[in-house]
Design brief:
Elements lengths: L3 E5 L1 E2 L2 E2 L1 H17 L3 E7 L6 H4 L6 E6 L8 H15 L3 E5 L2 H14 L3 E5 L1 E12 L5 E16 L4 E5 L7 E5 L16 E4 L2 H4 L26 E5 L6 H14 L2 E4 L1 H5 L20 E5 L5 H4 L7 E6 L12 E4 L2 H15 L2
Parallel strand pairs: 1-4, 1-6, 4-5, 5-12, 6-11, 7-11, 13-14, 13-15, 15-16, 16-17
Antiparallel strand pairs: 2-3, 8-9, 9-10
Amino acid sequence: MNNVFVYCELEGNKVADVSLELLTKGRKLANQLGVSLEAILIGYNLEGVERQVLPYGVDKVHIFDSEKLFPYTSLPHTSAVVNLFKEEKPQICLLGATVIGRDLGPRVSSALHSGLTADCTQLEIGSFDMKVKNADGVFEDKHYENQLYQIRPAFGGSIIATIVNPDHRPQMATVRDGVMKKEILDENYNGEIVRHDVAKYIPDTDYVVKVIDRHVEAAKNNLKGAPIVVAGGYGVGSKEGFNLLFELAKELHAEVGASRAAVDAGWVDHDRQIGQTGVTVRPKVYIACGISGAIQHIAGMKEAGIIISINSDPEAPINQIADYIINGTVEEVVPKLIKYYKKNSK
């Protein structure tokens, strides 16, 4: 009752990184609230998979194992989670903001009449006061303790919104891959394993959709895991301008990323977008080329080890978080960097 739950996304019998990141955050939230952390695993042939999640501080693992539950389809997974939540009554549920999480989260939220905040960049526990209408229609002050602050950029990234769901449970939030940090708590952490009777939670009518064929395309880049990222914004000026960034990245053994403005302009593929609506990265070095630094973009790279800004505008917002600032255009600065690294890497 009132515990923190994380829906763990599976590809075969491997738990997705975003779910492990959420378990790390969920453990911290559970500690603050003085409750348990519980994980949900739904799929097929899951013997031993719980060992992937227990080291993150999971107190209880709920397993639904059936050949009919992989690959993911909406109805059976929704029934499993909804019916489990009706029994367990969690106060918080976290899901990855993936294709599956974006499908499952709203379905569960709608069925349970709870709130759901998408694409959170921070999750905190806090208290607040607000006016509520009583039975007589009079507004009076009410104090709420230990609420989940669901924090995310809003209005195109121009503000940071803190969203709360004071009266309905569970409080639900989705978080993008890479936003939270993944940290093992204890390799030998012990938790309770509960293997549920699938038929008790999922009616046969939910299996009306059957996946005949399935194709999973591998990622074209390793942007999330790259130690060095060279990222370009609208200030790069053109698709051809990005060729300079790719050339610099080749010399540095780095990956190329981009801001949303550059992606929207068609200069680079969407899978290289960094920010709230793209990938979150934590490289050792982040080189921002012609990036102004909108809140939405900063949310996806602010935890880089060293941030270098190349910008012709000395007042660009990204300069406020940069460790080093090079004042100049991309056309002026990047070719010099390429020349320098070519000369000194031999």
